Amino acid sequence: MIKKPLKYNTVLKTFKIGGVHPPENKLSAQAPISVLPLPEQVIIPLSQHIGAPAIPTVKKGDRVKAGQLIGQAAGFISANIHSSVSGTVVGIDSVTDASGYARPSVIIKVEGDEWEDTVLEKAEAKKPGDYSKEEIIKAIAAAGIVGMGGATFPTQVKLSPPPGNKAETLIVNGVECEPYLTADHRLMLEHGEELMTGVQLIMRALDVRRAVVGIENNKRDAIELLTRLAAQIPGVEVCPLKVRYPQGGEKQLIKAVTGKSVPSGGLPIAVGAVVQNVGTVYAVYEAVMKHKPLVERVVTVTGKAVKNPGNYLCRIGTPISKLIEAAGGMPEDTGKVISGGPMMGKAVMSTEIAVTKGTSGVLLMRENESRRPAYRNCIRCAKCVSACPMGLEPFRLMLLSEQGLTETLEQERVMDCIECGSCSFTCPAHRPLLDLIRLGKNRTGQMIRARKAKNQ
Amino acid sequence: MTTTILFTIISLCLIGIASAVILYFVAQKFKVDEDPRIDIVEELLPGANCGGCGKPGCRGFAEATVKADSLDGLFCPVGGAATMTKIASALGREVVMQTPKIAVVRCNGTCEHRPRTSHYDGYKSCAVEHSLYRGETDCAYGCLGCGDCVKACAFDAIRMDENGLPAVDEEKCVACGACVKACPRNIIELRNQGPKGRRVFVSCVNKDKGAAARKACAAACIGCGKCAKECPFGAITVENNVAYIDFNKCRLCRKCVSACPTHAIHEVNFPARKITEATPEASTTEA
After folding, report:
1. What are the tens digits of pLDDT across the range A337-359?
2. Of A98, A418, B92, B126, which has the fewest CB atoms closer than 10 Å, so is most exposed?
3. Cα gap B49→B60, rounded to integer Å
4. What is the C-alpha separation between B159 and B227, in angstroms, rounded?
5. CATH topology of domain B101-268
6. Other residues' Cβ atoms within 10 Å of the Cβ of residue A108
């Protein structure tokens, strides 16, 4: 077997501006992915993606099989929703999601584990080269695959660049820069070969000759394994990256890997790059080679007080309380339950909310960790400016948001903010920078949309 | 020494005179003709620049009144009828009266009625909290209690009361509508002040089905429709599980108030018919 020497001693690549290095706390990095037992009931929201909610194709009382279509994509930017279990549809109702607002969801009572006949247990004996570009994209769209890093943007849209743009490089995002989370790490370690097939499939769909897997240097085992596997595939390489948050951000990763900067307001395709998360790549592999829709994903359950932090393969729609149970139950002094990682994740309203396509982790924070200290006046230290990976001035954006000056906010490029939270993390006065910037960004977005609608 | 002082004074005086002459001619040359009545009207306005009239400040309103053919649709909520009469007489126009309005808070979710089920420790702003999640209680429609309306009020007419709900000071409220815009949940509404300040309104905007609304808040409108049946004037409509009283049709008979099973309909400034304690804002429905 050919083994490329790893260049650990050389300076590792990373993005150029801003960034922070929060404590990594990858507690579950050594815990293999285990399959979570089926819950009694799943709640599958019809909107698990960016874009229009899917239209339900089943009704109360219907019997469904795992992998069956239950929600049809409504429009170009939308995604299909499939049943993740077999059983009876109990109802299509508004169920509170992580934010506490009611969203239409399909509730299914689990009965047995019967799969749709089209779903194969073993991958087809074909090579990635045997599939045509259209076949792959069609399979991805049918499977309802969305970006599984958390943004949940429909993948088929990302793989069909607008006319006039040509992708040159596929960048596979195995960075997992969020502290605590290890779902992508374990996936790379345990399903390396499938991932490589998935990478080849996406390369074919995009018609590119080069693919780079970006992995942070705190996952050396994954780097080693994937480098070994990539050596056998022409055009695929692994790029170890310096540990730095938010390297997993699309624009940061492109900068780190290719050295190119995505222009303000532009899409990655403007510099010829398409970024896909490893979870998405694995889902593409399953969708094309096994005809299996996106109905399960790996979720990390972690926290300093959690008995057995681990990685679980669970069906979409499983209540997160089941995951917490599997990890040894909710510790007594839990102050916050966060869906996602500590930097970008959101605290959830209740543990009965369902795992969705974008749930990468469940983090249980202890009471003393979860409290936000009282904030004080800005001391003009400009730490937030140095930390901002987009080169913005968070302290200024916060003030402008507070004053509601949306036009100035637009000039100050508030729409470039990726909401990574580096500014709030680094602020010594604990100022609620991101809270207000997010508000200002919402309002500016509304203003821009209103202006566009007016001009049309 | 004296010559220096003298020289300075004389030269400065000369420069001053020369500049004054230049400025005079420039001012004549580039004179902007403006209707003098705009200044007169602006003088009559309260000068709060609150934007309650829908125009950009008092100057904008003055320009609009002078330009418009009639005063229809133009109303300064702060100055009210008195100011509008003065403006009308200054401009020699008909005064178009508008019924005086007042801000009404349509949420009855006191701590007692609506238990807190979570804790929010983000930035204290209703707009931020609303965008993040449904709030500290189980009601996704009710008051968040961070006081965005209090901050928005330029007349110091809203404060948060001991129940954590906004209370409108009837004396100070000018119905400019700033709080209505500030509230991310559209709880505050401008309603007719009513004769002697008497008015009846549904103090809830929860669109959830009855059971869910009731579970979240003991004083929620459950959309049962009893009030609509009871109303002899057809002023009440129930839409999306919540009742709404049309203040133009309401004749203040108060039958709906007694009919409401959750006491979600409030009557204000009526003489007490039961032993109750009349507070200026929400009141008198505790049976």
Report:
1. 999 999 999 999 889 999 999 99
2. B92
3. 9
4. 30
5. Alpha-Beta Plaits (3.30.70)
6. 27
Mean pLDDT by 10 residues, chain B (287 residues): 92 97 93 87 88 87 87 83 87 80 92 89 90 89 93 92 91 89 93 90 92 91 92 92 92 91 91 58 42
Six-digit token string for A145:
């695959």
Q: Which residues of A touch B (CB under 8 A)?
A: 96, 98-102, 346-347, 349, 371-372, 432, 435-436, 438-439, 442
- Give the contacts of A198 (CB within 8 A, at least 6 positions apart): A281, A282, A283, A284, A285, A288
At residue A309, the pLDDT reads: 94
pLDDT band at A45 (very low <50, low <70, confident <90, very high): very high
Ranges of CATH 3.10.20.600 domains, chain A: 38-109+295-369
Task: Indicate the angle between helix axes B36-44 and B57-67, nearest 10 degrees.
Answer: 130
Cβ of B123 within 8 Å of Cβ of A346? The answer is: no
User: Contact B133/A349, CB-based, under 8 Å?
Assistant: yes
Q: Exposed e or buried b for every residue in B18-32, given b needs 16+ CB within 10 A?
A: eeeeeeeeeeeeeee
What's the CATH number for B36-91? 1.10.15
Residue entry with tokens 């549904």: B202
Pairing of strands A169-174, A210-216: parallel
Residue B5's identity, in one-letter code, is I
Report residue A199: phi and psi, to 5°: -60, -45
Closest by CA to A231, choosing from A198, A206, A196, A257, is A196
Rounded to the nearest 10°, the torsion over CA A185, A190, A191, A193 is: 110
The domain A38-109+295-369 is classified under which CATH number: 3.10.20.600, 3.30.160.390, 3.40.50.720, 3.40.30.10? 3.10.20.600
- Asked if B121's CB is within 8 angstroms of A372's CB, the reply is yes
The predicted pLDDT at position B278 comes to: 46
